[in-house]
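[09:14] KT: can someone run the structure on this one? pasting the chain below
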Amino acid sequence: MQSRNFSTKGLVINTKPKGESNRLVTIFTPEDGIFSATLYGGPKSRLRSQVSPMNSGTMYLYKDEAKKSVKISDFDVKNYHASFRESLFKSFASSLASEILMKTHCAGNSEQSWILMNGFLDGMDFFGEEEARIGLVRFLWRYIALLGIQPDTVNCCQCGLPFKSGLRNISIGKNADDTLSYRNAFDFRANGFVCGDCMKNQQKSGSKMEIGGESIEYLGNLSNMAPKEARRLKIDDAVLGETKNLCLSIIENAIGSRLMTLESSSGIL
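[09:31] RB: done, structure tokens below
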């Protein structure tokens, strides 16, 4: 096989030492997903300062097919995501998204994962931390859809009846005085939402997580709205916390292991 030079859109996921002066760089591209490449040069190297986590742009690579190795030749950075260095939340959120991409192999769709990931990172960089926290939920829910495991937010996965809409429960056979604050649940074994009526007839178990109707409605809106419309939705802290924890739990359940970034972030996320 022949060695070759090529360029690609690239996002630096992380870097770590390799030998005395080189670095092993994890790169995400829309064509080839996530892979490693070697960056040669000491601490004073111009290229080394550019190849930093969450920087994105056009990356120039040299691939040696015989040695099964890739070397970074140059990097034209288009976005430094400078605000991540000033916000612990943004830094950990970007690391969390990267870990999810790596552990799920970009959901088997590098191109769509690239669009989602870069939209998330650019949005966090543009907005303040409060909006970035809501942006994390949007990213997680959409990535769950890309994984093919996004649950139905319209009907109970057990009785098949629809959840509440607006401020009244309009489901057949259910109490019309119940509001969206009525507690429902998510069943991880069934990968679906369970209505409050079905919950009453069941024992509590570790496979279920309680969640309010407002949270289910918000996630349903995210599924049906264009990104620009979804960004206009306002949610309170309770819904933000519930939907974030649910999305993370769904992803961890699919992966089959704990996300290590959550362990190291010490409640910042």
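[09:33] KT: thanks! The radius of gyration is 22 Å.
[09:34] RB: yep, looked fine to me
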